[in-house]
Amino acid sequence: MVLRRASPAGLSYLKLFLGIKNAISSTTSPVINSDGDFPLLNFTQLKKLTQTINLQRFLAPAIVAIGCILPTYASAHFQMIYTPELLRAKGGNISLKMPFTHPAASGHVMKVDHPQAFYMIKKGKKTNLIDSLSEIEWESAVDKGHAYQADVKLRGLGDYVFISKPSPYFEAEEGFYIQQITKTIVNVGGLPTDWNKDFGLAAEIVPLTKPYAIYEGGIFTGVVKSRGQAVPFAEIEVEFVNYVPEMENNRFAKTPLMIPAADVFITQTIYADANGTFNYALPKAGQWGFAALDVGEQKVYKDKALSQDAVIWVEATKLP
Questions:
Q1: What are the pLDDT digits (tens) for 230-266?
Q2: Kind of pairing, strands 245-246 and 251-252?
Q3: What pLDDT score does 76 carry?
Q4: How far apart are CA 98 and CA 150, in angstroms?
Q5: Are residues 163 and 120 part of one domain?
Q6: Would you state the pLDDT for residue 11?
Q7: Could you report how far apart the first and last alpha carbons of the chain are, in Å?
Q8: What is the number of alpha carbons within 13 Å of residue 86 lying toward its C-beta?
Q9: Spatial CA neighbour of 200 closest among 161, 150, 157, 234
Q10: How far is residue 312's CA from residue 221's CA, in Å, rounded to a whole number?
Q11: Chain centroid to CA 303: how far?
């Protein structure tokens, strides 16, 4: 099992940075808690902090590094397959943006090698889309990073299930690889076809609720599986796409849709039950990501530990 946490070395660097800040600005309250262990500023606040005290020029690289190693309650890794509408009245051309990033915080964009597989399933028929991928630079509030996009034409009514199997990403601070097998389902015309199918993936979340037909405040239910077998008590991270992707500009919006009440709300953690089933009420309209951690069958890659995760994206719609 891979333990997701900030490394001791990473926290030491963070404490060093915050110590510098406190030494310069003695009028501000401490930003390390009483135990001296956990940062109380989020990633965006740290970036603004360096700008305020004119240290951006010198500490920007350190801030980027810190963003990669903050505890998971600050922001989690999420492989995206993003398109603005998961429920469409008609088909046509759509673009899919695929950064590996922290969507709730507009955080660090991680460079991942070319996906091992990318395909679409409609009415049981699989279409290989690997050749449709092109490389892009994705911009967040923190930096720019390597990502991918695909332009696809939707023909006819039904569900279009897009599945990506990225190359494993090496998390250097933690010393292990992450591979997030990701699923996004786009529906045309409201005709359900493939949305609740189990595709037997190495790591998969099989929805029990249509992921494109949930009202704001409604409940999404899914089952965590590996090769068709339920994974009991799986740990699942949940994030809201708080910075809406600007499709034409290949970047996150500058302004968030909401301000979290506290950092613990940026990435929420829930657990599946003994049957691998979980429920989550979507409190705000928009797209939400669910990542079931370390549930895949493969545990080692290039002699290092591998966390093979299952990711699915769903959308909540405002009540009319």
A1: 999 999 999 999 999 999 999 999 999 999 999 999 9
A2: antiparallel
A3: 84
A4: 8
A5: yes
A6: 34
A7: 44
A8: 26
A9: 161
A10: 11
A11: 25
Enumerate residue ranges in the chain where pLDDT < 50: 5-74
Please indicate, yes or no, whether residues 282 and 301 belong to a single structural domain of this protein: yes
Please check whether residues 182 and 100 belong to one and the same domain.
Answer: yes
Q: What is the maximal distance between C-alpha atoms in the chain? A: 63
What stretches of 57-209 adopt beta strand conformation (E)? 78-79, 87-88, 92-98, 100-101, 117-122, 125-128, 133-139, 144-154, 158-165, 169-171, 176-188, 204-207
Is residue 188 within 8 A of residue 158, CB to CB? The reply is yes
Using CA atoms, how far apart are residues 155 and 104, in angstroms rounded to an integer?
32
Q: Which domain holds residue 44?
A: 8-69
The reply to whether 3 falls in a domain is no
- Calpha distance 72→293 (Å, rounded): 12
**Which pTM value belongs to this model?**
0.80
Amino acid at 220: F
Pair (40, 139) in one structural domain: no
**Residue 200 near residue 241 (C-beta atoms within 8 A):** no
| Domain boundary residue, one of 69, 87, 107 | 69
Cβ neighbours, 10 Å, residue 314: 25
Across 133-158, b (16+ Cβ under 10 Å) vs e yields beebebbbbbbebbbbbbebebeebb
